[in-house]
Design brief:
Number of strands: 9
Mean pLDDT: 95
Oligomer: single chain
Pathway: Isoprenoid biosynthesis; dimethylallyl diphosphate biosynthesis; dimethylallyl diphosphate from isopentenyl diphosphate: step 1/1
EC number: 5.3.3.2
Distance between the termini: 39 Å
CATH superfamily: Nucleoside Triphosphate Pyrophosphohydrolase
Strand content: 35-45%
Largest sheet: 7 strands, mixed
Structural class: alpha+beta
Order of helices and strands: EEHEEEEHEEEHH
Keywords: Cytoplasm, Isomerase, Isoprene biosynthesis, Magnesium, Manganese, Metal-binding
Low-confidence stretches: none
Protein name: Isopentenyl-diphosphate delta-isomerase
GO molecular function: isopentenyl-diphosphate delta-isomerase activity
Radius of gyration: 15 Å
């Protein structure tokens, strides 16, 4: 069964529910989150699996997804960290949120109210190959330089929110 997302307004007030595929095809503004795990001046990045419905093979933050209807966003972030990378983090903090829109060449649209979440982590991880094909700890300065030189290697939302996250590390 296809998961549902939470439709929201520009203030993140819930407006209803919709199947994820329909929300990305329409587009409808919906709630999402982007998790950044860090330790010792480094951020854990994941390379999205090549077969993802958009942005396959691009580097992005540690984990990103959508809370389910009725699910608290931080709980959804913990759930997806476990599902995608077998990571268990107790302390996560939302640092800010933003709205973005991006239309991909395949017609899918991202129109998301994205909650940006951070947490410190220094344990192991095990990737779900359906979600991510690689992961790497990247030093802050090296990441900023690579984002500047090679923005095409990164997801559009990552380029938008990573700078604010890096200010806090």
């Amino acid at each position: 069964m296809e998961p549902k997302v939470i439709l929201v307004d520009y203030l993140d007030n819930p407006l209803g529910e919709m199947k994820k595929g329909a929300a990305h095809a329409s587009p409808h503004l919906h709630r999402a989150f982007s998790v950044f795990l860090y330790h010792d001046g480094k951020i854990l990045l994941q390379k999205r699996a090549e077969n993802k419905y958009h942005c396959g093979g691009l580097w992005t933050n540690t984990c990103c997804s959508h809370p389910r209807p009725g699910e608290i966003t931080l709980d959804a972030a913990r759930r997806r960290l476990d599902e995608e990378m077998k990571i268990h983090v107790k302390r996560l903090e939302e640092i800010y949120s933003f709205v973005y829109y991006y239309k991909f060449d395949n017609g899918i649209c991202e129109f998301e109210f994205d909650h940006v979440i951070m947490g410190e982590y220094y344990g192991s991880y095990k990737l779900d190959p359906k979600e991510a094909e690689a992961a790497v700890w990247m030093e802050k300065t090296e990441l900023l330089e690579d984002m500047q030189a090679n923005p095409q290697k990164y997801t559009p939302w990552f380029l938008t929110c990573a700078v604010e996250v890096l200010k806090r590390i």
